[in-house]
Amino acid sequence: MSARKHYTDLTDEMKVYVDRKIMQEQWSPEQISGRRRALGLSPISHETIYRYVWEEKHKWGKPLYKYLRHRGRRYNKRGSSYKSRGIPGRVGIEQRPAVVDEKGRFGDLEIDTIVGKNRRNVIMTINDRESGFLIMRKLPSKEAEPLAAAAIAALKPIRKELHTMTADNGTEFSKHQRIAKALKMKIFFARPYHSWERGANENTNGLVRQYFLKGTDFANITDKDIYMVQKRINNRPRKRLHYKTPVEFIKHKYGNNKIILKLLRY
């Protein structure tokens, strides 16, 4: 067996670092590269990391690629075949204040659900558009009542800092008026087949799917599992945050806001 290919710009120390971040923390090559630059460590391009991952797979069978977000496969977004439903009192995204698009303030949220095997259980995801901070809750079904109750309970401690919420047109959001009233916030709905209008949430759900793969029976997932994944995602560096994590971003910008800091105890 021949010796492994040596990358002049990828040292053994770097390989150990890459292996740990991919396999233990599920970071992407771009996150690894950007984070090292942000910390002033020896730089590694994300192209080099991808090359290393696939070389390790094809030559040695090393399973690094299995920890990448899509494992090398492409997925179609749900919005390409998702049908709109009638929702009482629905207010379209075209009426949402323009300031929400700027992602410059805390409290503009997006909400969605991820469905488990046989649609038995679902995971509710709520993310802040500015920081990317994620809140997850397991629900017994994709019904509007339990979703509304879970959203209210999760967000009530920080309701004074909330402005808007954006959802898709699923019937699980038909109790949106109850949520809006309890939290004193405005809720808007994206246009059908316009999944990019909730782009941050679509991306976040993709991160969640790294841990709970399609076909997973959510009935076997515990609240402890949900919290572990939520914590990991909130401590992953984000490119648009200049490779700070959502937790670091919130601490840096809102360190004196006791209400917003309650998020970090979730």
Describe this structure in words.
- The protein is globular.
- A hairpin with a 6-residue loop joins strand 1 and strand 2 (122-128).
- The N and C termini lie far apart (50 Å).
- With 266 residues, the protein is α/β, with parallel strands linked by helices.
- Helix 2 packs across helix 3 and helix 4 (144-155) packs parallel to helix 5 (176-183).
- It contains eight helices and five strands.
The fraction of residues in strands falls at: 5-15%
Overall helicity: 25-40%
Q: Strands across the major sheet, in which order? A: 3-2-1-4-5
Number of helices: 8
How are the SSEs ordered, and which strands pair?
Layout: H1 12-23, H2 29-39, H3 46-60, E1 108-115, E2 122-128, E3 134-139, H4 144-155, E4 164-167, H5 176-183, E5 186-189, H6 199-208, H7 223-234, H8 246-254
Parallel strand pairs: 1-4, 4-5
Antiparallel strand pairs: 1-2, 2-3
Structure in a nutshell:
With 266 residues, the protein is α/β, with parallel strands linked by helices.
Give keywords.
266 residues; 8 helices; alpha/beta
